[in-house]
Amino acid sequence: MCNYLIANINDGSFNGTKILEAESYSELWKEQAITGWRGYATEVGLSWFLGEYKGAKVKSHSGYDIGFLSELVLLPEIGAAVVIMMNSDNIALNNICSNVMDIVLGE
């Protein structure tokens, strides 16, 4: 997951290999709809949720099923990312992720 996030932060390049054109990110990360949610996922692009967290632009995607939760968060303007994966389905993952993002942002 870390390699995937690095490739996304680097506009589709990883270890000198281009896996997606940089222009594709303008489409992936272009607002398609408003989510109506509070927090850092107020809009949706193509498979990515978009928003801001404490002034930093955020691109995110989450997943869940019985027994697991995951959250990917990109902060591309500062070249940082957070990935949290856990074998649980009853924990407030957004709270954990927000606290980790606070650390990444130096708060």
Q: Topology of this structure?
A:
Layout: H1 2-9, E1 13-14, E2 17-18, H2 22-28, E3 33-34, E4 43-44, E5 49-53, E6 56-65, E7 68-75, E8 80-86, H3 93-104
Antiparallel strand pairs: 1-2, 3-4, 4-5, 5-6, 6-7, 7-8
Protein traits:
107 residues; alpha+beta; six-stranded antiparallel beta sheet; two-stranded antiparallel sheet; 8 strands; globular
If you had to describe this structure to a student in words, what would you say it looks like?
With 107 residues, this protein is α+β, with helices and mostly antiparallel strands. Helix content is 25%, strand content 36%. It contains three helices and eight strands. Strands 3-4-5-6-7-8 form a six-stranded antiparallel β-sheet, sandwiched between helices. Strands 1-2 form a two-stranded antiparallel sheet. The longest helix has 12 residues, at 93-104. It is globular and about 40 Å long. The two termini are 25 Å apart.
